[in-house]
Amino acid sequence: MAAWLGADELAFAETQRSFQVSATVSEGCLVSETGETSGNVGEFGTLDFGTASSLSSDVLTSAVVQAGAVSLECTPGIELTMRIDGGLNAASGSRQVSRVDGDQALAYALYADAGLQQSIGIDEAVAFQLDPSSSSISLPVYGRLALPGNAYAGTYTDRLTVTLAW
What we know:
It is built from one helix and twelve strands; from the N terminus they run H-E-E-E-E-E-E-E-E-E-E-E-E. By secondary structure, it is mainly beta. The protein has one domain: Fimbrial-type adhesion domain (Immunoglobulin-like), CATH 2.60.40. The strands form four sheets. A five-stranded antiparallel sheet has the order 3-10-8-7-11, with no helix packed on it. A three-stranded antiparallel sheet has the order 9-6-12, with no helix packed on it. This is Spore coat protein U/FanG domain-containing protein.
């Protein structure tokens, strides 16, 4: 025998179902620039070996000096790496500064530490940590240039591209 429910009985019927709630937080970083970097937006800084005599055989060292206020905000605990290309004048697997008024070049090397022990090869991934108390980037990049003792006089330059990955 079938039983039919009346309208009053339907109003009091209950059913329960559940649904899933979730969220995924992806790791990542936000890079931003504040201020102007001497008209060169996107330029991180300079590595300046200074001035020396064309007859010098000195070994010159320098650290990258940041040109603008670049900040990097990242997910806590994220692993960061940087790669630095060979620049505009790379030859035979080494970076070179090239004389502006000629075809002479001088090889130089990059390092990830002030003691010049951890070499940064061309496009080699180098892990680094952000200072957790600051969002400002301070890339660990140092340079070494050994002068040959008979370099042509002039200004030598190169331009490198840094790629940050996470």
